[in-house]
Design a protein that fits this description.
Length: 78
Amino acid sequence: MSLVEIFSDIAELIARMNPQQVIGLKAPQQMSDRVDELMDKKKEGLLTSEEASELERFLALDLFISLTKARAQILLAK
């Protein structure tokens, strides 16, 4: 089983718990601010390797949450 398949299965499980709440998930403002800060530093070429790793983790989490929300929307549409 690939990592993508595992994430997909976990996203499905979470979405089934309470699809309406899953759709309403939103990142805390502090997290959004940090991502914006890291993205600005990346654009300016000032991102350290540690910050690049941090940004990658945030983006992976965002992708996973988006996948989970998409699964929840499909469940609610049925």
